[in-house]
User: What shape does this take?
Amino acid sequence: MTSPFGRALGAMITPFDAAGALDPDGAQRLAAHLVDGGCDGLVLSGTTGESPTTSDAEKSTLIRAVKEAVGDRAAVLAGVGSADTAHTGELARQAERAGADGLLVVTPYYSRPPQDAIEEHFRTVADATGLPVLLYDIPGRTGTRIEPDTMVRLAGHPRIVGVKDCAYDVLGTQKVLARTELAYYTGCEEYILPLYAVGGAGYISTVANAVPAELRAILDAFDAGDTAGAALLQRLALPLIDLMMANGLPGTVTAKALLGALNLPSGPVRAPLRAAGAEMVGRLVTAYEAITESSLSRA
Assistant: This one.
């Protein structure tokens, strides 16, 4: 399986300053930190990056800042999805001008278009630039699945190269893997090893904001033939994954809370999101310390 943007991608938060304004310097520091920690690529302005509450101008500024910070050391992908095909196309062109290496395009949300309209939407956006495109399948958020047969048809487009998979349908994913050359990146950290083992390309992870090296180690162990070690590393990561992604708070909130506690660039979340409480921050730090201490003991 090819990995057009590398294997270990971080779904990067968007750092804000104390007043809630975009913090380009903080974004550059965090981006460099994540790449130093093992991220092959960074996805900006996704769900984790608070794309619904950042302006088009802020999105462009963020791309330029991060691209300047990481250069050719990592791929920089821009989330450009919206519920409006015309606006999504304009965001795609804006991202290309700002220097993005690829695009992440989510299914149009809320309006719940049928499959033929979804297919036309993605083709229109893919035709808007010369950049490679990842489709983002997350029906729990959008209300609409990109069905496997639709994926297979879209795989014929020369610039649609892969999928960020949050559909929780391993059978459907394997059907597409068997019929196409699309690169599948799991967006659900509990599937890092399972999807990789059946031919996935890697992951796009919110949890990687905090533990980029520890998640990459899962893939490295599997590639080295140490399947038992890879499985152990996946299990060691689960408490932090569970706390950050499945404990009632959005991953953006938990990631920013943990990064702030670690003195890494983060800042507040924008309304309607609300900051994590002190008790949750303490639990996040404890889980973080457990996984990083386990990694040190294995080194």
In short: The radius of gyration is 18 Å. The chain has a mean pLDDT of 97. The first strand starts at residue 8 and ends at 11.
